Amino acid sequence: MSTSANTLHNATAAWREADRKHHLHPFTDAAGLAKEGGPRIIVKAEGNFLTDSEGQQILDGMAGLWCVNVGYGRKELAEAAYNQMLELPYYNTFFKTATPPAIELAEKLAQITPEGLEHVFYGSSGSESNDTVVRMVRHFWNLKGKREKKVIISREYAYHGSTCASASLGGMTAMHEQADLPIPGIEHVMPPYWYDFGKGMDKDLFGRMAAKAVEDKILELGADKVAAFIAEPIMGAGGVIVPPESYWPEIQRICKKHDVLLVADEVICGFGRTGEWFASQTLDIKPDLMTMAKGITSGYLPLSGLMVGNRVAEALSEGGEFFHGYTYSGHPVACAVALKNIEIIEREGLVDKVREETGPYLQEGLRSLSDHPLVGEARGLGLFGAVELVKDKETHERHEKNLATLTCRKHCIESGLMLRQVRDSMICSPPLTFEKVHVDELVSKLRGALDATAKELGAA
Ligand code: PMP
């Protein structure tokens, strides 16, 4: 080992030790991590590649955590932050004040988001903005004099964040169990997860059945009690679940019929991932409210927003003070970075590139893995995909305790590919700067990892 490699190696050991002693990681089994010797430490990234503290180069098939849409190492974003910090590092938007970046970004967002969404309420994370949804929806129906119309319907396997209200909106039972959630007033119905719930059924028929689950819940509770339905256009953390084509038209018909607000959570789908600025445009969804985060700054700084449709915005504007907001709502540095980030996406034509070139190419690549003995289904849209692993392709029987995906993930990372595992699926969501060569590398490394997994499971 050379001297510098040695130095890095020693630094890694010291970081791991300090991490174990002092750092509590999100969504991590601390004892399990300590047993494995501590975390992989990412020290640098450029373009589509990460570098860890041992010098390994890793292709980032997840864009960080579904967010680094323009890739790493963008000097322009660093300069936008630097210049804004020198000009005005912080000012709030509470007491009849605003800052130029917050205003200019609001105007830009109104242009690129679906028609009818003209106003933004800022936060700093997807969780915060989904909390704002709960606050705003309740306030809206109070203003309308319908104080009973309060229940928000969501779906099993949904992910809407980790605060008490957003985790309640989510459909992750493990999260609910640890914190006595959901909070009152939130109900969950089945997701449009055809591969798991619709086995053997016509896909569109299943899509209508999954939508009917929402209507059944509305009828069970009474439409006068139901305030809103919230959903990710394509479910992300729940396993990249792309609904059948029949699902969203039915959902919209049902929400309209029962006067239930439709909330699209575009925290993952937004900013180009599906080949339009927002998946609501790809899937022809017209939400009343829409949350976004992550790709808004490509993860370079924390920022989120709730786009508010005209119906709700009008009621709010006539409803007196809305007692809600965050210190960092409309943070000027984050907004300046978001503006530059959107400019880069536009200038480099990244949305069109996903729609016309790399998105279809990734989908073809993932589907080419369907012949692998472990692969039950390959699915996705744009630069957003999943490969679901099974023990038996006929019966869809899964491996115990997510053994196949946990093993596969280990082999992916060992071979220099960062992918994520969700239950029985391997998930990818790469930067929009992926070229076809990067897709090729992702698919071939994933195939290699699947082969290694099959061998390891076979030998077990
Ligand atoms: N909504 C969706 C659809 C998400 O995927 C996430 C995070 N993965 C969130 C909300 C929460 O965002 P944050 O972690 O920024 O709070």
Verbal overview:
With 460 residues, the chain is of the alpha/beta class. It has two domains: 40-70 and 349-457, Aspartate Aminotransferase, domain 1; 75-347, Aspartate Aminotransferase, domain 2 (3-Layer(aba) Sandwich), CATH 3.40.640.10. Helices cover 44% and strands 15% of the residues. The chain contains 17 helices and 15 strands. Strand 8 (261-265), helix 12 and strand 9 form a beta-alpha-beta unit. Helix 10 (203-221) packs parallel to helix 11. The radius of gyration is 22 Å and the shape is globular.
Using brief descriptors, characterize the structure shown.
Aspartate Aminotransferase, domain 1, Aspartate Aminotransferase, domain 2, binds 4'-deoxy-4'-aminopyridoxal-5'-phosphate, 460 residues, single chain, four-stranded mixed beta sheet, alpha/beta, 2 domains, seven-stranded mixed beta sheet
Please estimate the helix content: 40-55%
pLDDT < 50 runs, ≥5 residues: none
Instruction: Report the principal-axis shape.
Output: globular
Which strand order does the major sheet show? 4-10-9-8-7-5-6
Task: State the gist of this model.
The chain has two domains: 40-70 and 349-457, Aspartate Aminotransferase, domain 1 (Alpha-Beta Complex), CATH 3.90.1150; 75-347, Type I PLP-dependent aspartate aminotransferase-like (Major domain) (Aspartate Aminotransferase, domain 2, 3-Layer(aba) Sandwich), CATH 3.40.640. 44% of the residues lie in helices and 15% in strands.
